[in-house]
Design goal:
It is a single chain. With 118 residues, the protein is of the alpha+beta class. It has one domain. It is built from five helices and five strands; from the N terminus they run H-E-E-H-E-H-E-E-H-H. A three-stranded antiparallel beta sheet has the order 1-2-3. The protein has a two-stranded antiparallel ribbon with strand order 4-5.
Length: 118
């Protein structure tokens, strides 16, 4: 199904207003559905977060919850197991290999989003 991506200005406005934005990417034959943050590094000097395997509503909630925790001073540590984010599940954070950035964060690249726009 074809769809249009919102203009980069709408994400930049969310980063300006809220400190971050959430981008949802539909899955297709080449990859899964996922959501990622945009602006956490700009606002909090914290790595961006990408979520796989959850509905868009739940993935957005997770990213927003983590953004609030980050704003409160918490850092998401790689390879540490976390309780209390998703009831009944432990969560962990992994580094995204840099050679995967174009595949997963291509929206920022293809839309020409720069740090100056955030």
């Amino acid at each position: 199904m074809a769809h249009e991506c919102p203009p980069v200005e709408s994400f930049a406005a969310d980063v300006e207003r809220f400190g971050f934005a959430v981008v949802c990417v539909y899955g297709d034959d080449d990859g899964p559905e996922f959501a990622f943050s945009m602006g956490l590094y700009h606002t909090f000097k914290h790595p961006e977060i990408i979520v796989f395997g959850l509905s868009f509503d739940l993935a957005r909630w997770v990213i927003r919850e983590l953004a609030q925790r980050i704003d409160d001073g918490e850092k998401c540590e790689v390879d540490r197991l976390y309780d209390g984010l998703l009831e009944g599940y432990q969560c962990t954070f992994r580094n995204v290999p840099k050679d995967s950035y174009p595949d997963y964060f291509g929206y920022m690249r293809t839309q020409g989003l720069s740090r100056e726009q955030l």
